[in-house]
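User: Structure please.
Assistant: Input sequence and predicted structure:
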Amino acid sequence: MRHFILTILLCIVVNSLEAQLLLPRYYDADSLKLVLAGNPPDTTRITVLLQLAGTYFFKQPDTSQLYAKRALEISRTVKSDKHLLYSLNRAGEAMRQKGNYAGAMEKQLEALDLSRKIGNDHMEANSIGFIGITYLDLESHENAFYNLKNAIDRSEHLSNDGTDLLFLIFLAQTYNEKKQPDSTFYFLGRAKEILRHSSPQFLLRRNERIREITLGDAFRLKRNLDSAAFYYRLALRSTLKYRNFAPNHVSIASGRLASLFMEQNQVDSGLYFARFAYSVLRKTNVYPRILDASSLLAQLHRKTGKLDSALYYQDITIALNDSLYGKDKSNELQLLLLQEQKRHAETLSTEERSKNSQLLIGLVSITGVILIASMLLFRNNRIKQKTNVALQQTLKELRSTQSQLVQSEKMASLGELTAGIAHEIQNPLNFVNNFADVNRELLTEMKAELDQGNLEEAKAIANSVIENEGMITNHGKRADVIVKGMLQHSRSSTGVKEPTDINALTDEYLRLSYHGLRAKDKTFNATLITDYDKTIGTINIIPQDIGRVVLNLINNAFYAVNDREKSQTTGYEPQVIVSTKKSGGQILISVKDNGTGIPDSIKDKIFQPFFTTKPTGQGTGLGLSLAYDIVTKGNGGELNVTTQEGRGSEFIITLPS
C-alpha cells in the first residue's frame, strides 16, 4: 500500500514536470523505477526515463545511455518532437561521457536539425552548446569556441535553465586550451555571478566544482601554482562532501593535483592523487577520465623507476587510447563530419543560387535603366547650354564626393580599431576585477588563519595578495597605455612632428589590427612574428599619420593571408612578419606576409587613387594612395613594395631619422 501511494505521488510530480523536461531534477532511482512499473502514459514514461538517465549520468554512463535510448525509441514512436529533442541531447551527452564522440556528435547534430525545423530557439542554443563541448573533448578548439560562443549569445535573451552557466564554464576552458587565461578569468567571473544569484541546486553545485577546476587551470597557466593547487583542492573537498559525489569531478580534480605535483617533482604526492583518481573511476565506464588517470600513473611510476607498474598502466593507456581514438573511431567521426559539411554546403549553395538569381534580375534592370538614360542623354545632347550646366554641376558634385571619400578613408582606420580596442582594454580590466575577487577571498582566508594563530600560513597568503596587487597595478597601467594610444589615434593630425617610439607604435597597431580582424572573423588565425631594432629610440614623425599608414599595411597583410588560407586548405600556415631597423640615417618599417601576393601586371598601379585588388564593396582604393602621400609628402620618406604572386608581399616604409 505504501509503495502504491508513493508511485501515485511520483506520477503526479513527474506529470507536473513535463513542461520542464530539461530542468535538472534528480529523484531517487528506486522511486522512479516504481513509476515505470506502474505502466504510466508514454509521455510520463519518457520523462521518468530521462530523469533516470540523469541520475546515472556521472556514475554509470552505460546505464544512463540505456535509459536515454529507451526514451528516444518511445519519443520516435509517439512522434513528440519536444520529447525527442530532450532524448537526443541526453543520449548524446551520455555517449560523450563514455568517449563515444561519433555517436554523441550524430545525436547532437540530429537534435540541432530538429530544433531548427520546429523553431525551438532554446533547444537550438542547447544543441549548439553540447556540440561545442564535444568539440572541446576532441581538442578541436576553434570549433569548440565558435559553437560555445554561439550558444551563449543565443541564450542571453532566453530563459535560464542552467545550461548557459555550463557553456560559460566550458568556453572558459576553451580559452585555457588556447593559452588565453585572461579571457578565462572574464568568463568564469560571469559564471560566478550566475551562481551567486541562483539557488543551490544539485547541478549548480556540480558546475561550481567545474568552475573551480577551470580557475585552477588558469592560475596554472599564469604560473601561480599555489593558487592553482588551492582551487584544485577546493574542488576536490567540495565534491567529496556529498554522499552522491560525481566520480568524474573527483577524478579531474585529483588528476590535476597529481599532474601539478609531477610538474614540481613531488612524485609521492603525485602518485597519491593519481591512484585516488584511478580508484574512484574503476567502477565507472568514464573511459576518457580513466585514460587520463592511467597515463598519469604510467608517467609517475616511470619517474620512480618502477618499470613493471609503469608498463602495466602504459598498456591500459594504449588500449583505451586505441578504443577511443583509434583509426575506426577516427574514420567514423570524420565521415560523419564530412556528411554534415556536405549537407551544410548544399544548403549554402541553394541560398547562393537564390542570391545570384536576384543579382541577375537586378543587373538586367540596371542595364535597362542605363539604356534608357543613354537614349535620353543622346536626345538632350542637342541642347548644348543645358547640358553644359548639368555637366558643371555633376563635376562639382563629383569633386565633393571625392573629397568626402578621401576624408572617410582617413577616418576608416579608427572604426576598424574599435573591436580590437574593446578586446585589448577588456583583458587588463578583467584581470583587475578577477584578481580583486581573488584577493578578497584570500584576505578572508588570511583573517581566519590569524584567528587560529597560524601566522606562517597567514604570511604566505599575504604574499599572494601582494603579488596579485602587483599584477593589478601592471594591468591597470596597461589599460592606461591603450586608452592614451586610442586618444592619440583618434585625434586629428596637427601636421607637427614629435619624438615617437616607432617600435611601440608599430607593435600597438599590429595587435589592435589582429584583434579587430578576429572580432569580425572568429575562424581567422595567423602567426605573428616581430623583430624590432631596440637601438632606434625615438624619431621625429607625425604619429597619427604614420600610425594610419602602419595600420593600413598590416590590415592588408592580414587580408592577403586570410584570402590565401580560404583557397589553400592544406599545408599552409598564415604568417605576418613586422620588423623595424635602423640603417645609416634612415629608419625602415617592414610589413611582410606570405599571402596571395600581387601580380606583376598591376604592381605599378597599387599606389594610384581608387585602384583596388579587393572585391567590389570591400575596398575604396584609397588606403595605399593615402599611405603613399603621408609617407612621401608628409614625412619626407619612401614607401616601396616587393611581391611575388602566390608567395606574398613586403611593404617597406623608409623614414629619415
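Residues 493-656 form a domain with the Heat Shock Protein 90 fold (CATH 3.30.565.10).
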